[in-house]
Design a protein that fits this description.
The complex is a heterodimer of chains A (111) and B (112). Chain A has 111 residues and is mainly beta. Chain A has no helices and eleven strands. In chain A, the strands form two sheets. In chain A, strands 2, 4, 5, 9, 10 and 11 form a six-stranded mixed β-sheet that branches. In chain A, a hairpin with a 6-residue loop joins strand 4 and strand 5. By secondary structure, chain B is mostly beta strands. Chain B contains no helices and eleven strands. Chain B is globular. The termini of chain B are far apart. Classes of the chains: A mainly beta (111), B mainly beta (112). Chains A and B meet through strand 4, strand 5 and strand 10 of A and strand 5 and strand 10 of B.
Chain lengths: 111, 112
């Protein structure tokens, strides 16, 4: 089955700086890649997703890039704010609606 | 708020017991998914139901079962509970033919 890996496991950034989280996947048939943000005591919240026919997608301060050849995709958060502190999960699906998740990245924004 | 609701929020029980977790999907969503989140395994897909029928199975134990009712709410039944079943259990839903899944707030299960 699909194997998704995330790096780094923990990321600390100064408020206002950018944060980048990278994920790799193993199944070349995967074609859907969502990112979720999970705050303490809450469920994962979808923040952005990308499909394999697109190389990049942006939504305000958040962007996702996809490199199908290298089988990796990245989450970019610009102008980080304290409320961006959370655990971020990447996931991949090959169209069967089963999401395979990475282990998550703890992002800490230092005021 | 994703629109997916789950009850109860917290559940404490003993080994060997049986519990039922409940999920109501977003209005109009036909698919329901169950995930288990633990510290060592991360988020693991358990099972999917679509309009009342089982659609896909993941790493779900035989002691666990689920169903989706005509009103589209779903229940996850966990029996013969073990200490290792302590985890967060999330339900997610998606619209017909849609990949985007929206998660509920989860049920935290503690088995003592």
């Amino acid at each position: 089955g699909e194997n998704v890996e995330q790096h780094p496991s923990t990321l600390s950034v100064q408020e206002g700086d950018s944060a980048v989280i990278k994920c790799t996947y193993s199944d070349s048939a995967s074609n859907y890649f969502p990112w979720y943000k999970q705050e303490l005591g809450k469920g994962p919240q979808l923040i952005i997703d990308i499909r394999s026919n697109v190389g990049e997608k942006k939504d305000q301060r958040i962007a996702v890039t996809l490199n199908k050849t290298a089988k990796h995709f990245s989450l970019h958060i610009t102008e980080t704010q304290p409320e961006d502190s959370a655990v971020y999960f990447c996931a991949a699906s090959n169209g069967n609606n089963r999401l395979a998740f990475g282990k998550g990245n703890q992002v800490v924004v230092i005021p | 708020d994703s629109g997916v609701t789950q009850t109860p929020k917290h559940l404490i029980t003993a080994t060997g017991q049986r519990v039922t977790l409940r999920c109501s999907p977003r209005s109009g969503d036909l698919s329901v998914y169950w995930y288990q989140q633990s510290l060592d395994q991360g988020l693991q897909f358990l099972i999917q139901y679509y309009n009342g029928e089982e659609r896909a199975k993941g790493n779900i134990l035989e002691r666990f079962s689920a169903q989706q009712f005509p009103d589209l709410h779903s229940e996850l039944n966990l029996s013969s509970l073990e200490l290792g079943d302590s985890a967060l259990y999330f339900c997610a839903s998606s619209a017909h033919r849609a990949e985007t899944q929206y998660f509920g707030p989860g049920t935290r299960l503690l088995v003592l």
